[in-house]
């Protein structure tokens, strides 16, 4: 009896601790990340379903990549209702997924879709993604049915939003 009453009181106190209209996000911890070869990832880079996609290539060991992630997370949150989807394509080493990538996702509470590109043929997929890409990260692809633009640079939120608006 005490156990049920205790949890009921805990739930009510959490419920009423939120201000009117405020919803506290409860995020679940990530326990796995889907791994793709380039051929498996390619359909995510060519969708034509009415959405706009912002695809960021990054890694946990890349300081400029980590610095810009909040801009992509904010864009994901602000534009989700406007038919925009952010996909974070990790180029971390496959052997470090459990020890580095998954803990990083959980620590930083990443809400965007995160996938791992696990393909050793970088000479093929780098040029296939964009012929001008040197392979340096961070790099970002923004595309929809109207157009496709590739950026080999870091973004802050204002720049990222501005580039997104040019294609919406």
Automatic annotation (TrEMBL):
Domain Thioredoxin, residue spans: 24-168
Record keywords: Redox-active center
- Which Pfam family is one of those matched by this entry? AhpC-TSA
What superkingdom does the record give? Bacteria
* InterPro entries with a match to the protein in the record: AhpC/TSA, Thioredoxin-like_sf, Thioredoxin_CS, Thioredoxin_domain, Thioredoxin_ResA/DsbE_sf
UniProt-recorded name of the protein: Thioredoxin
Origin species: Polaribacter sejongensis
């Amino acid at each position: 009896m005490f156990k049920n009453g205790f949890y009921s009181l805990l739930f009510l106190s959490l419920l009423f601790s939120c201000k009117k209209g405020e919803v506290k996000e409860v995020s679940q911890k990530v326990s796995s990340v889907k791994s793709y070869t380039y051929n498996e990832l390619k359909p995510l880079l060519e969708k034509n379903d009415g959405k706009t996609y912002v695809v960021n290539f990054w890694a946990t060991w890349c300081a400029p990549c980590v610095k810009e992630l909040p801009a992509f997370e904010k864009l994901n949150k602000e534009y989700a209702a406007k038919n925009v989807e952010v996909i974070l394509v990790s180029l971390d080493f496959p052997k470090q997924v459990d020890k580095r990538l998954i803990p990083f996702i959980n620590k930083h509470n990443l809400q965007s879709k995160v996938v791992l590109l696990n393909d050793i043929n970088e000479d093929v997929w780098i040029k296939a993604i964009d012929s001008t890409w040197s392979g340096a990260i961070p790099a970002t692809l923004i595309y929809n049915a109207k157009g496709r633009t590739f950026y080999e640079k870091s973004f802050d939120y204002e720049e990222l939003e501005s580039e997104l608006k040019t294609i919406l």
